[in-house]
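Summary for the funding panel

The consortium committed to producing paired sequence-structure records for every protein in the target list. Below we show the first two records in order, beginning with the earlier of the two.
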Amino acid sequence: MNILALILSILMICAHINILQPDGMEKIYKDDLEEALAGASTENSTVIIAVANQAYTEGDKPMLDIFLDGLWLGEGTQKLKDHILIVAVDQTAYDRCKFLNLHCYKMKTDGVEFDGREKLFMSDDFIKMMWRRTLLLGDVLKHGYNFIFTDMDILWVRNPFQMLMLNESLDLQISVDKFNGDEWSENNPINTGFYMIRSNRKTIALYDEWYGQKDNSTGKKEQDVLYELMRGGAFERLGLRVRFLDTLFFSGFCQNSNDFKEVTTVHANCCRSIKAKVHDLMEVLHDWKKFKASSHDNTTQFQWSDHTACLDSWKQQ
């Protein structure tokens, strides 16, 4: 090998490693996931994770674009984009993510190929994708990263970190479909579309047990299995401290927050199709822009538009 070829080889290796630490030492990542997490992480090793497939990244107004619009229009949310890692299920979603200059990771599906079509709620492909997501998120914890997981059909109209308890004694803070008034009550109906979780031995054990139920849970989505584990005493047995998030702040279509001055996230839950979610989330953005343009003196005049498309989505086959 001549000198020029040797130099080119060294440059290619350095380009692959790509990052120098402050002390000048080269940082070598053990895998692609660790590199992606490090790129999006905050200083305290926390990442915001959302999952996208082709159906969420194509169309006149893709769900991914609506999600980003929410961050742009929200209060104190613009800079959070730097800490979001988009996990792409397919190549189309990955390409769109890279085009938008976001932090992106292509999820390895281990021989299970998900096409770009919409995965209707509770369809077989929907359930498979939810379980594959659970496996990946458990791997994130094993890499030593805390994370907020957010479904992409959630608008962040305020910075949720300001409403989440950041002390290390809390292992999991999770959203609910309808809040029962007690943020420590396991009678709350959990929703795995939004939660914050810390990486520690207890949460890793939870994810291992959770994913371990997959083959014994035919026809159940991963959220149902986690709820059953909770009701069966798994949280207490593992020593987990769990907080259930009030829908006044972390709201959704199942239970609206009626306080525009307090609402932090709006989730298009209780909705079956992407088309319906897109329609009604656009209405939410319209309502939010009207609120921001007002004097805010009297919030009682502000109400969310009816989620008509999502209500109608359950009537369609």
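The next record, for a separate protein in the list, is shown here:
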Amino acid sequence: TILNSMPPHALKLADPNVIDEELIRKCITTVEEIKLSDEKKKELKAHTELHDIKALSFSFESILKIDNLIGLHSLVKLQLDNNTIENIENLGHLVNLEWLDLSFNNIVVIEGLDSLLKLTDLSLFNNKIEELKGLTALTALNCLSIGNNNIKQLMPAVHYLRPFLNLRMINMLGNPCSKDPEYYTRIIAHLRDIVYVDYRLVDPDKVQVAKEQYQD
């Protein structure tokens, strides 16, 4: 899963990078390349058809704008972490995407994800998000990392997540709302199928106590 937090970093000041075919090919990730020499990796990436690419890692590429991903219909895994992205956009056609990492960017609003119905793992860790919204269509979501943002109100966020019946892992640590003394107990009481909260395995005994405390 992508329920993880990377260490804080400082991106070097650089001109924004544009996603083009050269960068796409550079950022192809495959299981096969692990065993290959650098020369063979380059050859593999150069000859891969764009419509066959399953995974791309654009981590630390100074990307400001998500664009030019047309034709990548087979993409299952997309890493856009550690960039300077401000808007979630131009992803709607990637309908086979299951794993999306947008952590460590400058995103303020969750949007542009409505057609990604197969998405199971989503990281928005360490952005500037103030409200949980824009996720309603993602009913397959299993793992959501939204920690280190600016979400202040706990219960609106918890109630928003209740309809997500496949959600098993949630990270909201590092938001102002996580300082609420009842933060953990309210989450496990109201999100009844959650297995992990902030990297911790949920204790079934504590769930029962929490449910009794916050009956609804």
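Regarding this second record: Residues 21-213 form a domain with the Leucine-rich repeat, LRR (right-handed beta-alpha superhelix) fold (CATH 3.80.10.10). Confidence is low (pLDDT under 50) at residues 5-12.
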